Amino acid sequence: MQKAVFMTGLNQMEMRDIPIPTPQTGQVLVKLEYVGICGSDVHYLEYGKIGDFVVNGDFILGHECAGTVAEVGPGVKNLKVGDRVALEPGITCGQCKFCKTGRYNLCPNVEFLATPPYHGCLEQYIAFPENMCFKLPDNISTREGALVEPLSVGIHAAKQGKVTLGDRVVILGAGCIGLVTLLACKAFGASQVTVVDLIPKRLECAKKLGASHVINGKEEDVLAAVKQITEGEGADVVIETAGSSTTVAQTAEIVCTGGRVVLVGMAPEDIIPYNFARLMAKEASIQTVFRYRNIYPQAIKAIAQGLIDVSGIVTHEFDFADTPKAFDYVIHNKDDVIKAVIKIG
Ligand SMILES: [Zn+2]
Ligand SMILES: [Zn+2]
User: Fold this and answer.
1) Any idea which architecture 2-147+314-343 has in CATH?
2) How far away, in angstroms, is 311 Cα from ligand 1 center?
3) What is the pLDDT of residue 62?
4) Distance, CA 80 to ligand 1 centroid (Å)?
5) pLDDT per residue over 160-192, tens digit each?
6) What's the CA-to-centroid distance between 294 and ligand 2, angstroms?
7) CATH architecture of the domain formed by 154-288
8) For residue 62, which ligand has an atom nearest its CA?
9) CA 130 to centroid of ligand 2, rounded, Å
10) pTM above 0.85?
11) 89 with 114: CB under 8 angstroms?
12) CB-based contacts of 140, cutoff 8 Å, min separation 6
């Protein structure tokens, strides 16, 4: 038997014994070591749903994870017992037009960890397809391995915005996704990355992680500050990660002529007032981001080579036995926590 943490109701969690799964053909059994707490996990626990995804019955949260292969199923070719791996949490069908064209993040048949009805990974062992378990080199810890998931969102955002050498980038929001997007944009060669948030602690963190400028949206006029920082031009790429209608609307103003807007954050409102005339007058484009695709291998190499250092993202660590406490802490200290991880003992 193994331990797993179930969400049993809104703001209720409990640890239970469940069987250790047997790896099927093409699967490995992974002994999990770290699981990151994502904003989506917290949202499910507090509200029981995200959009159309509704938690029905007892549910295991967690989708950002890494661990060590403990057993291999029949037909496993590339991994062996003892390999340390980061798990990409979406198992796709491989048959639909999106999978066949390499855009598997859009697969309608995806089984994504901790997205109802599929359980997550806040447990000690998980059986998972070998081809979604990415081997970590010796110089990457499983703690960093668990951060490959959020980092992949940041890298996908930078790619969707075609961030390249010399770009001036503005990132709205300095939560975990804003900060990994900052790391990605710098790795992609942006010459200037400005990060905007309302919380001083997060802006400090952005500075530490290499932001060239930070703007506190509570104290400063964001549009005027960006204008000044970009010598009147506006940003080549604006990446919205805060998920607020205010910051979404700001993207049309901040982007430069011919520039790119990338929407990553999910605003609570479905419909947001937006100045499309301004965007069109600049012939600026809008891209969106849904998870990521084909990024784990690059992300792992970038961390291994020191191009991206994710270790500074983690602000809090909790033991597995304290998982309910960890979620409670995250819910009540949202301004203070950038990324909390659970160490699975
Ligand atoms: Zn996540
Ligand atoms: Zn598919």
Assistant:
1) Alpha-Beta Complex (3.90)
2) 16
3) 98
4) 27
5) 999 999 999 999 999 999 999 999 999 999 999
6) 14
7) 3-Layer(aba) Sandwich (3.40)
8) 1
9) 17
10) yes
11) yes
12) 84, 300, 303, 304
